[in-house]
Every structure is written in structure tokens, then in C-alpha cells.
Amino acid sequence: MSATAPAPGPGVPAGLSVLLEAVLSVGTDLELRSVLQHLVDSAAALTGAAHGVLGVFDPGHGTVVVEEVTTGEAQPVLPPDEAADAVVHEPDVLAVPIHVQQTVFGRLRLTGKRSPGGFTDDDLDLLRLLATQAGIAIGNARLYETAKQRERWIEGAAAVTTALLTGRADDALTAVAERARLLADAAAGVVLQPTEAGGMEIVAASTTDDPHGLLGTTIQPGSAVLAQLLTGEPVFIEDSATDPRMTTEVRSRFGPSMMLPLQAGGKLIGTLALPRSRGARPYTSVDHLLATQFASQAALALVLADAQAGRERLAVFEDRDRIARDLHDLVVQRLFATGMMLESTQRRTQVEDVREALAHAVDELESTIQEVRTTIFALQQPPADAPTTFRGKVLRETAGAAAILGFAPSVHFHGPVDATLTDQVQGHLLTALRRALATASRRSPLSRIDVTVDAEATLPDGRPGVRLTVSDDGARDDGAATTTVTWQSPP
């Protein structure tokens, strides 16, 4: 956006016209970087300087220059020993401070006066006037930039909350870390959680390169930073590589950093850390405030998402329990009653073929009842959790084989397998089951596999034992129609 000052009327000095044009140029943009560039360019044009530099100070550290804006061919720098609010008027140098809301925002320095005699008193007066108007324009631009920055953080927090509550985030903690990294313009975003030993460990990371070098990094107990984080206090660090409070092995990779508690309802979920690269611009007080607010919102979203996931799991469990009850109370009882009727009919009939047919029907019903009971047991297992019982582990192995086979093996249990078998025997049996299923899957054609675990078997030497039998209808090398693999052991 540009504006042109009106042509000077009679009696209006030409310098005043140039000043008006410079003021308009500085004040007609709301982007802070553009305002600063307009200021340096206008100051050089107003005074006839060949070179100009504006140093922007870090508001929290006095005269530390965090950014320079230049004009002209050379790239001048501000002398480190000049006071921030000092006015310099020399033939070859002209420098004035830029105040924004009673605070020294930066320092404008001009060199290389093109006309003979160097900078004049009029040049200094014009530069002071321009600096005053520039302070107002910079203040407005900073307010506009802060508003936009706040809007980005609010939108980011809303996006994270929506993703977590709608289940679109595959990894909730990584989603929080990645969004925060982008909003903070950080080199990395990591989430740390307390360890059993009393430290904190990075459990989720988002970086511009490979995040695996950060995962697993631990802050050991006793660290000064850790003591502050565990109390729910944020930690702001100027340089991670040199700060004595930082003790991790990855600290040398980073500079300015924010470490923010993820806390909701008085419970500390973890810590969100946002380190920037070495030499990167430091975080401002506005960055601190907005990131802290984001962390609070993200922590609440994580708690709500976890509660929602818990409710959904509970609903699934309740539905599975209902199906299991229906199968047990209705289906199994009816099948059992039908089997008893057939057995009674078998005893009364005198026709041998009918007796054999009825006996076969009874066997099929008993097999079906066993499979239904196995299904009931599987329904009672948490769908997303690793099985803790031996029955559940066997069913997990057969379910995994089903994905390869294209059909589910039939599984039968006899006796108290969970209460009888030792952990060592369970491990050997599962290994034998995996091998048998893998071998059977290589036979073709194959349409049926029967798995039986009998905890009431008798070993050849007469001792009680457990027997695993895996039968399939795949073709054997010797032409037989079925293959049976048997494994047995003392319990």
C-alpha cells in the first residue's frame, strides 16, 4: 500500500513535503517488517544518507539486538557500546532511538551523507519527527501482529481439540507436539511424561528432520528444570546448550526453548517443550503467554479425549457382554436341549443307520456348542488389549492365522487350561501352535483347521498332561486326506 503526499503549496519547505511523504509511507502498512523497512528507506531518503540500519532490541534484555533492517549497498551494524536511547549527531553519523509506548524499541542509525558538510541540525530534527511517527506506526503494527499471532494459536488449539475429540489424530501426544511446533516456529516439539524413577522422558516428538533421535531422551531426577516442571511451572530458557539447568544429551542442538506443563484438573499429564535451533530468535513474552495458554487447552483436550475413548471402550464391552449373554442363555441352551433330544431318540431307535446318523448329529452339536462357548470367551476379552489368559493367547494366534488362511480355524478347549498350565508349558505350547499353523498354511488346497487344547489328557506313561492337536484337510505328501500334528507335555 502506498500514498503520495500532496505537492507543497506556497511557502511550504521542500523538506516538509518529503517528511510528510515519509510519514505516510511508514504509517500505511500494518505488517511490522514492512513498516520497519519503510522507516529505514524513508529516513535515508529524507536525510540524504547512503546507508541506514535499524536495530530492534529484545524487550526483555535491554540492548540485545534481535533483528536488523538495512538500506543502501552496505550492511552496517550498530556499535555495541552505544546507549540505546542516545542521540548521535556527527557529520558522518546520525542516530536516534525509536520509542514505542515509552520503551526503546530500536535504534535508527544513518551514515554516508551524500551532500558536503555532512548531516545538519535540520536532518536531525526531521529524523526525530519521523522517529516519533514511526513509533506510533510500529506500535499499531505490533498490535496487529500480536492479534494475528493470537488468532493462529487459538485456531491451532481448536484444531488440536477437534482432532483429538473426533478421533482423527492417530497419536494424540504427537498431534499436540506437531501443532505446537508449527505455531511456535520451533525446531522441535516434544512431549515428556513422568517416569517411574522420578524423571521425565520424551514420549512423542515432531521435528523438521528425524524425530527418533529425541524419543526416549530422559531428564534425570534431581534436575533443577525437572523440579520446576513437576510443580506445574513453565520454564523459559534463553539457550538450551549453555543453560546449566539443562542436562539432557540433546541440549547442544537447541537454543531458545519453552517448557510448558500439560496440566488439567490439578493433574500433570506431561510437559510440552518447544526448542528452537541454535542462534534462532528468542521467544518473546507474547510467545510465552500464547504457548502457555495453548498447553492448558491441549491438556484439557487430552483428558477429554481419553475420557471419551474410555466411554467408547465401555460401550463396546457392554455390547460384547450382551452378545455373549445372549449366546450363552439362548443359543447354547437350545443346542444343548436339542442334543439331549437326539440322544434320547438314538437310544429308542432300532435302526442302525438311524442310530449312527443321530450319533453323528449329537457329535456335531457338541462341537458347535464348544465353538460357541469359545466365541463367548473371545467376546469377553478387551478388543484392543493384549490377552492375559492362556485361552486368549491361543485365540489370538488362531485369529492371526485366519488373516493369512482366509478362514478362521476351529478351536476347542478341554479342562481348566488357564488354571492348570504353567507359564513355561504355555510358552512351549504356543510355539508349537505357531509352527503347526504355519506348516498347515503351506498345504493346498486347505479349507479347514481344527485346534484342540486338552488339559485333561493322559500321557503315554500314564501321567496327567496337556495335549495340543492341530488337524487340517490339506493334501499330504503321501496322498493322505488329512494331516494331524500332536504336541504333549506334563502340565
Radius of gyration: 39 Å
Please give the order of strands in the largest beta sheet. Answer: 8-7-6-11-10-9
Beta-strand percent range: 15-25%
How is the main sheet built? 6 strands, antiparallel
Overall mean pLDDT: 78
Q: Uncertain spans, ≥5 residues at pLDDT below 50?
A: 1-14
Number of H/I helices: 10
Helical percentage: 40-55%
- Tell how many strands the DSSP assignment holds: 15
Cα separation of the termini: 86 Å
Structural class: alpha+beta
Shape: rod-shaped
H/E element string?
HHEEEEEHHEEEHEEEHHHEHHEEE
Write the layout of secondary structure elements.
Elements: H1 14-27, H2 32-47, E1 49-57, E2 65-71, E3 88-89, E4 93-100, E5 103-113, H3 121-165, H4 172-184, E6 188-194, E7 200-207, E8 218-219, H5 224-230, E9 235-237, E10 254-264, E11 267-277, H6 285-348, H7 352-379, H8 390-405, E12 410-414, H9 417-420, H10 423-441, E13 449-458, E14 464-472, E15 483-489
Parallel strand pairs: 12-13
Antiparallel strand pairs: 1-2, 1-5, 3-4, 4-5, 6-7, 6-11, 7-8, 9-10, 10-11, 13-14, 14-15
Question: How would you summarize this macromolecular structure in one to three sentences?
Answer:
With about 500 residues, this protein is of the alpha+beta class. The protein has ten helices and 15 strands.
Report on the structure:
Helix 6 runs antiparallel to helix 7. The protein has a 6-stranded antiparallel sheet with strand order 8-7-6-11-10-9, with helices on both faces. The protein has a 5-stranded antiparallel sheet with strand order 2-1-5-4-3, with helices on one face. The chain is an alpha+beta fold and 491 residues long. The protein is rod-shaped. Strand 13 and strand 14 (464-472) form a beta hairpin. It is built from 10 helices and 15 strands.
